[in-house]
Amino acid sequence: MIKRSLKQIAEMIPAKDVIISFADTIISGVCIDSRKIEKGNLFIPFKGEHADGHKYVEESIRKGAAAALWQKDVPNPPLHLPIVIVENCLVALQELARSYRKQLAVKVVGITGSNGKTTTKDMTAGILSTQYKVLKTEGNYNNHIGLPLTVLGLNEDTEIAVLEMGMSGRGEIEFLTNLACPDAVVITNIGESHLLDLGSREGIAEAKLEILQGLKDGGLAVLHGDEPLLMERIQEHKGNIQLKTFGRNVTNDLYPTEIKQLENGNRFRINMSETAFELPVLGTHNILNALASMLIANYFSIPFEKMNEGLASIQLTNMRMELVEGKQGEKIINDAYNASPTSMMAAIELVSNLQGYGRKILVLGDMLELGPQEEQYHQQIGEALNDEKVDLLFTYGTLGMHIANKARMVLGQERVFAFTEKEALIQELRQHVDHQTLVLIKASRGMKLEEIVTALQVN
Fold first, then answer.
1. Which strands sit side by side in the sheet containing 437-442, from one edge to the other?
2. Which of 27, 34, 57, 280 is 20 to 30 A distant from 252 in Cα terms?
3. What's the number of domains the chain is made of?
4. 88-102, 229-243, 344-358: which has the minimum mean pLDDT?
């Protein structure tokens, strides 16, 4: 993590003022939550509509913070304490991270995409960790606050940082990539997430391609080569970059030549190695995420033959194709972190093809931020179900009703249950599970379907 004197901090931001008597005070790491202060931290208070972190500056220093920032327009700064006065605390956080990034020798990998970016981040970090000291974005720290915090968490001897870059609108990826200055970038795919804000898949593609604007001269861009929206638009991004593609088609630089779905993951081979790779992650679509990670690792001189070691030790972020067991012995695929039509269809395909279960149940909730065609996207999910591969469907939410209505035409009335009350869904679901049951639980983050997973595990 960052370790600098207050004088250096003030120069890096740059700041309006620093109390001279505290100029040599050393800070170790930054924190934006006064409840999580660690000894030596620089506390950065944010001023919002409903709360003002400046109220907790003195308390944070009493708890062990070495110093704090103070926004210029907030009255009564505690000048008897080690504070640095800045124009805007959020901008100061971002500029501090930008300056710190420039001072480090670390290599940076930036990852974005509509689906799979977190899984790809985890896979990339796992493989790179076999040879390098790596830090990756934790949790959902992938925005204009989280990414600077991740950068400021880098140690001086970190060799590679794997940074996830999220967005909801145009210009956000551009800001993040210009802050991080990546040496290599990945765009996992173009899906339907953020249609509400961006209007079309074309708009989403253009927003994701913003990641190239911060890519260092001569750096590597890894793209999903089966996606025409990316391959058409990459030609418009002139500059000295290297391009590698991955996908299912043999026209890509890296593609799978053999895939076998296992009970807890996949085994696959690729066109560039004789090695059989074991991926302990459910879903054949995750093989594509692995291919993107493998291209990045190979760029950093890790041979394909060594990558099994990294794949075997992958630590995935929670609620992404996470296989857990319920109280009655049922197997639950917890994929409740997020959902789009593309990722939901992939998850359903996975469940449909898994063997060895007496009953398969889908629990699907609303997919959010899909724009004017949201009802149609949900209807398409219901229409696509296979009555021979899915036994029961439970839906949750008002948009989920559209999945249920179309699914009844495929599965029949008696095999479809639609709910707008979560507790009622849980009570009914419990009546249909046993030790031979497989349950998929998936929806957009706002639906909080992980509560259903927890309920099945404890009762």
1. 322-325, 331-335, 437-442, 359-365, 392-396, 416-419
2. 280
3. 3
4. 229-243
